[in-house]
Amino acid sequence: MAHTELDLHERRAIEDMLNAKVPISRIAAELGRHRSSIYREIKRNSFTDAELPYLNGYYGMTAQREASKRRARRRKLIRLEVLRAHVIAQLKVGWTPEQIAGRLGFDGQPLRVSHETIYAYIYSPEGQSEELARHLPGRRKKRRPRYARRPRGQVFPPERSIHQRPEYVKTRETFGEWEGDLMIFERSQGKMNVASLVERKTRFAVLFRNNDRSSTHLINNLMNVMEPLPQPARRSITFDRGFEFREWRKLMSGIGTESWFCDPQAPWQKGSVENMNKRARRYLPRDTELAVLSSRQMKAIADRLNSTPRKCLGWRTPTEAFREEMMNLR
Q1: Single pTM value for the model
Q2: What pLDDT band is residue 139 in, cutting at 50, 70 and 90?
Q3: Which own/partner contact pairs does 79-85 have at CB distance under 8 Å and 24+ positions apart?
Q4: How would you classify residue 161: left for phi > 0, otherwise alpha for psi between -120 and 50, otherwise beta?
Q5: Of 97, 117, 228, 323, most Cβ neighbours within 10 A?
Q6: How do the domains of the chain map onto residue ranges?
Q7: Distance (Å, rounded) from C-alpha 262 to C-alpha 258?
Q8: pLDDT per position as a tens digit, 216-271
Q9: CATH superfamily assigned to domain 158-328
């Protein structure tokens, strides 16, 4: 269903029903709206006055004016042709929206616009028709409002940093410490990808296909793959900070496996799995048709990687080293 703004008629109905003490859920049902839309409307467009608090409340006409002013701000770059032309010109020479917004006062522009408004215009139907996003240093399919974006620091807390990881993991003294990553393929393959895991001490590799890049899908598959191993063989996994791993907390509650995270833009901190990915690319180039790869074929590729002797293992293969460690757990 297409998104439609509340109109004056609906806002007057909300005012009348609030005055009649009708519950929010009933108001939403009467208007055919989700109750969260009604809660948000009341919160954003209610009248408040610190000096006259007894007048505070929701008024349909006042709410309509507030919503109209907000839409006008949002569409400033559509209404004001000169300002729009200036912003587009600066985008085309490589400036970021933040640089453009910050420089407006120096460029003799009488009007101001925030960088969030510029981003909103770039990703609006008007901006997309002009392909403005291609001028950004880094583009996305869509941009969420600033206050709706979740800081990465909350997803990957400092106490899970690789710098807090025990020293024995770094020195590869203990068995069961893994590294994990995703191998990404050409866009024609859709959201399909291959997850790669490497046990740090033995360099033993595991590969499995994912049909979706969602974190929930990936972590569930990862737990299914790791769960058959005894607990000492799956102590921890070190990831990068890709949002594919944001559901990492499920690993501890689901299979008792800890998670650690590299610094931003520091993939070399999980060098074992990065090195293994390079080896795997011999058999899984970026144009691989993942849809036709069976689980048996994926295992055959992993077996081939694990049967190659390694100098760091005294010329043993990862399979031999892994099997020895598993025997030691008995």
Answers
A1: 0.56
A2: low
A3: 80/111, 83/109, 83/111, 83/113, 84/121
A4: beta
A5: 97
A6: 8-71, 76-135, 158-328
A7: 14
A8: 999 999 999 999 999 999 999 999 998 899 999 999 999 999 999 999 889 899 99
A9: Ribonuclease H-like superfamily/Ribonuclease H (3.30.420.10)
